[in-house]
Amino acid sequence: MDENEKRLQEKFTQLKKYLDKGDKKRFRKTYLDMHFYDQSTFYLTLNKDERLSIYTILEPDEMGDMFDTLEDDLPEIPEYLNEMNLSYASQMLNDMYDDNAADILEHLDKVEVDRFLGQMPRADANNLRGLLHYDTETAGGIMTTDYVRFHEDETAKEAIGNLKRFAETAETIYYLYVLDNHDDLVGVMSLRDLIMLDDNATLKDHMNSDIITVNVDAEQAEVAQVFRDYEFLAVPVLDHSNQMVGIVTVDDVIEVIDDESLQDYSGLAGVSVDETVQDNPLKAASKRLPWLITLLLLSMITATLINHYEGLLAEASILAVFISTITGTAGNAGTQSLAVAVRRLAVEEINRNEFFKLVGKELLTGFITGVVTGASVLLLVGFWKHNFILGMVIGLAMCAAITVANLAGSLIPMLMSSFGFDPAVASGPFISTLSDLTSVLIYFSIAGMFLQSFVGA
Amino acid sequence: MDENEKRLQEKFTQLKKYLDKGDKKRFRKTYLDMHFYDQSTFYLTLNKDERLSIYTILEPDEMGDMFDTLEDDLPEIPEYLNEMNLSYASQMLNDMYDDNAADILEHLDKVEVDRFLGQMPRADANNLRGLLHYDTETAGGIMTTDYVRFHEDETAKEAIGNLKRFAETAETIYYLYVLDNHDDLVGVMSLRDLIMLDDNATLKDHMNSDIITVNVDAEQAEVAQVFRDYEFLAVPVLDHSNQMVGIVTVDDVIEVIDDESLQDYSGLAGVSVDETVQDNPLKAASKRLPWLITLLLLSMITATLINHYEGLLAEASILAVFISTITGTAGNAGTQSLAVAVRRLAVEEINRNEFFKLVGKELLTGFITGVVTGASVLLLVGFWKHNFILGMVIGLAMCAAITVANLAGSLIPMLMSSFGFDPAVASGPFISTLSDLTSVLIYFSIAGMFLQSFVGA
Q1: Where are the annotated coiled coils located (chains A, B) (predicted)?
Q2: Does residue B417 lie in a domain region?
Q3: Which residues of A touch B227 (CB under 8 A)?
Q4: What is the pLDDT confidence band of residue B457, given thresholds at 50, 70 and 90?
C-alpha cells in the first residue's frame, strides 16, 4: 500500500504544477489516467481557486466520473456544486450514475434540487425525481436505473453488439436482463455466459430463468443478505406490479453492510460512532451527552432506591462494599446477552414460537452464568471476610441479578424488534444502567432477609 | 423475498420426490437449473442416505459448484467429505475455486488434507498447498489463483477468443490481467473496456497501467479498504518480488467485512457473538463466562477499595447511595469513547503526532462531557437532598470520573493498537469495570476532603 501511496503523492505534486502553470493538456492526460477514486482524493486536496480552474479543464462527464466515487454525505458537496456554474453542475449530475446523483441530491434542500433538475432534459430529471422518492434505506433508495436490457429473441452476436452501446452509461454490463414483449423480466444472463455462446444462439434459449429479485421496498439489510448468499454482482429490483425498475450493484451493497454494522456498533456503544478526527471536542461531546444525561436520570432512580435502604446500610455498611461488584457484573452479563440478541435479530427473523423458546434458552443461559459467577463470588467473599453467610448473600444476589440482566438483555431488543423498532437502539449502556436498578433491588431485598444472620455471624 | 422462498420450497419437495423414485434425469434437470446457493440450501436439508445417492447422480464438478457456496466453517463439512468416496471428494475439491477449496482444507487435520491432495494432479495439489501456507486473515489467505492472464501483445479479438477458454475455470473474467515477456503484471483491463475495442487493437495500447495492487501479506481489513475506495470487483495480489500470485474477488471481501465487523462488535460486547440459535444454554454460558469471571476479579479490587473507605461510609452512609450513579455514568462515558476510538483505529492509521493530538482532544471531550453531566447531577442531588455541598461533591466526582473514564476508553485501545494488539479486544465491559475502580477512588477521595462540610450542612 505504501508504494501506491508514494506514487500517488508524486502524481499529485505533478498535477498541481500543471495547474499552476495552466498546462491544461498535460494536466488532462495525467489526471484522466488516474483511477476515479485517486482523482477524487486529489480533488479534495484543492483550494477553491484550484477547483474553479479544474472546472474549466474537465468536461462535466469527466467530473461526474470522479463525483461518483465521493461519499454522498461529504459536507462540502453543496459548496462544490454551488461554485460550479449551474449548467455545468446539472450536466455533471446528469452524467453521473443515477443512484449516486440521487444520493447527492438527497442531501440538498428542495429549492436546490429543483434548480439542478430544471436544467436537465425532462426524462432525466423525472428519472432522478423518481429515485429521490424512495426511502434511502430500501432497495429503491440504493438502486440504479442504468442497467442493460435485451429482448429475449436477440442472438448472442446482436447482444454483444448492443452491449457496446450500453457500455458507456450502464453501471454494470456484466449481467444482462432479458425482457419479453410485455417488458416483463423473464431471464438473466451473465456476460460470462454470453461470451461463451455461439453467435446465433438466442438469449431465450440460454438465459437463466430462475431469477432472484428484490422488491423495491425491501430493506437494504435484506438486499445485502441476497448478495451474501448468492454472491451476485447485481440484483434486479421489481416494483409492486412486478415490473423491473432497476438494479442494485455490489459496490452499493458494501456501503450498506458498512452502514448497518456501524449502526449496530453505535447502538451497542450508546453513541453514534461516525465521529471523525475532524470533529472538535465540543461537537464530539454534544453527540455523547444526550444518552449520558438520559441514563443519568435512570441511574438517579437507582440512587433513590439505595436511599430507600439507607437504614439497612447504616446497620451493615459492609453491604456498600459490594454494590459496584454486583451491579457491574450483572451489567456486563446484560451487555453480552444484548449483543447476542441484537446480532441474532440482524441475521434472522424470529417468529412467535421461537420467541418463547429463545427467551427460555436465555433464561437458562443466564441462570447457568449466574450460578457459576455467584459461586465464585461466594468463595471470594467468604474467604476474604471469613463470613460465608455474607458470601452466600452476595452470591445469591449476584446469581439473581445476572439472571435478570441476561433476560432483560435479550428480551428488550426482541420486544423492540417485534414492535417494529430497531433493536440496535437498546444500547449496552442502557441495559447496564437498567440492570443497575434491578440488581440493587435484588441485592438489598436478599440482604434484608438475611441481615440478622450475617451481621451476627 | 417470500415468493422466492415459496417457489424454492416447492422445488425442494419436487427434488426429494425424484430422489425417492430414483428419477435421476429429472432430478439433474431441476437441480442444475437452480442457483448454486439454492442447491446448497437443498443439500443441507438431506439426510445421509439422500446425500449418498446424490453423489451418484452429480459429477464432482457439479458438486464443487455447490460446495463453493457453503460456509467453509460449517461443522458438518468433514463428515460430508468422508462419506464421499476419496477420489470423488478429491476431484470435487480440485474442481472448486481454489480459494474456497483451501478454506475447507484449512479446517481439516493434516492427515486428511494429505489424503485429499494425494489424489490430485501434482500441480493442483501444490497450488492448494501454497494457498494453505498463507495466514487466513491476509490477502494470501483469501485470494484465488484462478484468474485470467493475457500477453500485452494480444489483440482484442485474440483476447476474447482466449477468454472463452478461461471462462470455465476462472473465478472472474471481468478483469483481464496483462503480463509482459517476463510475466510481470503491466496492466489491467476490464472486460467492459475490452468489448468496446476494435478487433485489431492490442491490449498494450489500451490497458490501464496505473495498477492498484495489494501485497500477499496485507491484512484482510486493508484489502477490504481498497475495495471500498476503488469499487473494484477484484484486485491483483503481488508477492515480495512483485510477481502476481492471485486475485482477491469482491465476494470474499464481503465476507471479510462481515468478519471484521463481527469481531469489533464482539469486542465491544465482551463476548463472541457468533452464537447461533442452535447453541445450547450450556455452550452459550461457557462462551460468556471467561470474560465475566475475569472482570469479576477486577471488580473485587474495586470492592476492596470501597472496603478501605468503610470508615467514611459508616460516618456518612449517604455516600453509598451515589456509588452506582457515579460508576455507572462514568462507565457509560468510557464505553462511548472506547467505541469511537476502536472505530477510528479500524478506519485509519494513527501516527505519533496524531496520537497526542487525539489524546488531547479526547481529554477535552471528556472534560466537557464531565462538566455538563457533573453540573446536572449537582442540581439533581442538591435539590433532592437540600444539600448543595453534597451535590457539589457528587458533581465534582462525576466530572473527574467521566474525564478519566473517557481518557481510558480512548487511550487503552490506541496503546494496544500501537503495540500491535487488536484494539477491539479492549471490550466495553472491561472499560466499564476498570472505570468502576477509578471512579470509586475519585469519589471517595473527594468525599473524604469535604466530609465535614456536607455531613455538617
Answers
A1: none
A2: yes
A3: 254
A4: very low
